[in-house]
Amino acid sequence: MSAGTLAAGPVVRAPLGRLLAAEVRWALRRPRTIAFLVVFALVPVLIAIGVAVADQADGPGPGLIGAVAGNGLVLPVTSLMVALTLLLPLAVAMSAADALAGESAAGTLRGLLVAPVGRLRLVAMKAFGVLVVAVLATLVIAVFGILAGLVIVGWADGQLVTLSGSTVGFGDALGRVGLAVAWTVGQLVAVGAVALAISAFTEHPLVVLASVLGGLIVFGVLAAIPALQWIRPYLLTTGWSAGADVLRDPLPFEDLVESSLRALCYVAIGGGVTVGRMLRRDA
């Protein structure tokens, strides 16, 4: 068989499932990802210890963290809200930075672009890796939050005392924590989509991190200026406090739905920019 015949043969592509599994293994083996997961596991534990010590000394404090005292099922939601301000977006942005900009800097992205993988499948692989990191990070906080809340803080006769003063059963409480997890993942997916879009245009992962975190800080500043209140509905960080609504009774869905739709718009924009850039990018 001649070389020309071999070159004209059909292109065999690896199954998408195998590609996604390889991307997940690559994402989870990075030391930075492991370090972040350890930090996320410590967040609810440290909050629980702090609340327990403060409760014995001065009584429960104000705010969402103060509501954790003697009410351990509040802890996973509180921990998610605390981590969402910086740590969770940082982890997702770092994963997205490594996915494209990091591979470009290492010289491996060129091989992926010329390989018979397909550029849309390549974007899907990288996006899936970022999604897995977001889901895993959020679940680690929630699971360790539940465990630390029940073991260190304690709970009210197997019930959750809501911020409205009513009580709900253990099963309902876990359902509310699950809703908080799903909502948080949705916000992180939006951050990841924007980070991937930036990552597709640069070879420097630090540029992605600086852009995403800088953007979130700018969003917070803009939202705090009274004269610019008209811009708040367009800022991704608007409504990031809505996750605490799962602790209210009856459960208000308006802010949760609104912030989720806003995040979906950012996912569509970020995803579209990423796909457009990767389809036109030179190998």
Name the features.
disordered N terminus; mainly alpha; 11 helices; two-stranded antiparallel ribbon; 70% helix; 283 residues
Can you offer a commentary on this structure?
- The protein is mainly α and 283 residues long.
- It is built from 11 helices and 2 strands, in the order H-H-H-H-H-H-H-H-E-E-H-H-H.
- A two-stranded antiparallel ribbon has the order 1-2.
- A hairpin with a 5-residue loop joins strand 1 and strand 2.
- Helix 6 packs antiparallel against helix 10 (205-224) and helix 8 packs antiparallel against helix 9 (170-199).
- It is globular, with a radius of gyration of 22 Å.
- The two termini are 30 Å apart.
- The relative contact order is 0.14.
Element layout with pairings:
Elements: H1 3-7, H2 16-28, H3 31-57, H4 63-66, H5 75-84, H6 87-106, H7 109-114, H8 119-153, E1 160-161, E2 167-168, H9 170-199, H10 205-224, H11 254-280
Antiparallel strand pairs: 1-2
Helix pairs in contact: 2-8, 3-5, 3-8, 5-8, 5-9, 6-8, 6-9, 6-10, 8-9, 9-10, 9-11
